[in-house]
Amino acid sequence: MQRYNDARPVKVRARKGNFMLLRTLLLIALVGVLPTAAGASSISCEGGIVSTGDSVVDLVVKCGQPAWKESHQEELTERPAAGLRQQTYVTVERWTYDFGPQQLLRIVTIRNGVVTDVRTGREYGLPRDSDTAKPECGDRIISTGDTQVDVLNKCGEPFYRTSHDEELWQPMGATGSRKVVVTVEEWTYNFGPQRFMRIITFRNGRVVDVRTGKYGVR
């Protein structure tokens, strides 16, 4: 009987230790989750935090100019009443910030001067002293959906590029429509006379097609 009483406090202390350990692990997990949720709609820079709804001026003041800019125009057409037609022009910009090789790229979408979306890219930034010439990109994977910044990080500047605009009309509800001006670019990479050129097509800054061309040149 005496031996049972002596063992009982040890058992209670072990339970308390387990509870404290579980509580500590839970707090660590919560701390790890909270920044991810907050970062989904904001970008943190040396000058402060910019969130959706902030102006492009706030973005420039706090984060400076981006490493890369893309933009296109959208024309919104609505018919609020019979015989009436209302057109609205929207400038859509995508700014990409490169904070170096230890952090993923951050991509900010701006519509008519207001931040509407902030997301994290799939590629890490470039070293500050990196060489942009990367001929080995001929063996690296370029996928549809990659951004122009993704391709620049993998391949550097292209040998040659062309661009043109296309106009697309999209329905909006029962009475409206939207004209979207799509910028189409083709980037050609030249890897020398022993390898085929690669031609990458972008629509509004995203890869939609990758094909092989003729042999390259010196």
Explained architecture:
- The protein is an alpha+beta fold and 218 residues long.
- It has three helices and ten strands.
- The chain has helices spanning 2-39, 56-63, 148-155; strands at residues 42-45, 48-51, 68-78, 86-97, 104-111, 114-124, 160-172, 176-189, 196-203, 206-215.
- The strands form two sheets. Strands 3, 4, 5, 6, 7, 8, 9 and 10 form an eight-stranded antiparallel β-sheet that branches. It has a two-stranded antiparallel ribbon with strand order 1-2.
- It is flat, with a radius of gyration of 26 Å.
- Residues 1-14, 24-39 and 131-135 have low confidence and may be disordered.
Can you count the helices?
Answer: 3
Instruction: Spell the H/E element sequence.
Output: HEEHEEEEHEEEE
Whole-number mean pLDDT: 76
Q: What would you call the shape?
A: flat
Say how many strands there are: 10
- Helix content range: 10-25%
Radius of gyration over C-alpha positions, nearest whole angstrom: 26 Å
Q: Per DSSP, what share of the residues sits in E-state strands of 2 or more residues?
A: 35-45%
Low-confidence stretches: 1-14, 24-39, 131-135
End-to-end distance, in Å?
93 Å
What is the structural class? Answer: alpha+beta
- Largest beta-sheet details: 8 strands, antiparallel
